[in-house]
Automatic annotation (TrEMBL):
It comes from Schistosoma margrebowiei. This is Uncharacterized protein. Pfam families: RVT_1 (PF00078).
Amino acid sequence: MHINFIDYEKASDSVDWRTLWKLFRQYEVAEKIVNIIQNSYDGLQCKVGHGGGLTDAIQVRTGVRQDCLLSPFLFLLVVDWIMKTARSEEKHRIQRTAQNQLDDLDFADDLALLSHTHEQMQIKTASVAIISAPVGFSIHNGPSKSKRRTAIQPLLMAKLWKM
């Protein structure tokens, strides 16, 4: 089994708002809810502390707000769309149970792509990178790591499947 741990560069700061609003509509979120969230982001500005003072206001156009209860949901909506869009063909998935197959494991902005071969993993990783770009995400080459496991302990697999 091949596992590729994906790390996005500044992921929560990179979410493209225009794409986010489109995803809300694609997931059939009520227009009223979309408008409320969109209005809370439109016109957002910030100032940067530099040299003991503050810069002029800068228009913010990307990212989800830190310390906002809604931000994790907004971020996960984007990650969910990336993974659904980049999902590989059935033959590249890992068999989880007789009925279920597994492509990836996700937790917040940490993704672990799963595959049987190195070649399949390269295809998956390239697909995720291509799909991630329009939403503002880029894969960080430094912390992203690949691992190959020839055998996984049954107890570990049982824990993973219960997640």
